[in-house]
Design goal:
This protein has two helices and ten strands. By secondary structure, it is α+β, with helices and mostly antiparallel strands.
């Protein structure tokens, strides 16, 4: 399933209206939110996606942001155009993901929500990996 959301609050005035395209696993839904989408199985948010024209981060910058939290384990993911860090919190063992994907002139920031399962996290990372922008033709 692919979902499209038109518009971005921080788009440049001379940009055509981009449409964020997201491939979702079976049974997942995407709900528009300010600047992006909330994504997950019906009734549950597993991943937030936010669009921005801010500079694209490096894996090391994302790793440093995660390392400031109490984490036991981290795994850098660097498969361009996706960079990210998968981590496990030391206080309760919760797993999470923080990443960014370059999609045309935009950066799509991806962050898991607390309490996701390992399978949901794997699926969320794949959702982030598959995000793209299509230019609105209308």
């Amino acid at each position: 399933m692919a979902v499209g959301v038109v518009g971005c609050p921080d788009r440049a005035p001379d940009d055509p209206r981009p449409s964020l395209r997201v491939r979702l696993p079976d049974g997942w839904k995407a709900t528009p939110s300010p600047g992006g989408l909330h994504v997950g199985p019906a009734g549950r948010v597993v991943l937030t996606l936010e669009t921005s024209t801010r500079p694209f981060p490096t894996t090391d910058e994302l790793f440093a942001a995660v390392a400031r939290e109490k984490v036991d384990k981290t795994q850098k993911l660097e498969t361009p155009p996706l960079v990210g860090v998968r981590y496990r919190l030391s206080d309760d063992g919760a797993e999470g993901f923080l990443g960014a994907r370059r999609a045309g002139p935009r950066t799509v920031w991806c962050a898991s929500t607390r309490g996701v399962t390992a399978d949901e996290l794997d699926a969320a990372i794949e959702v982030c990996r598959g995000v793209s922008f299509d230019e609105d033709k209308s």
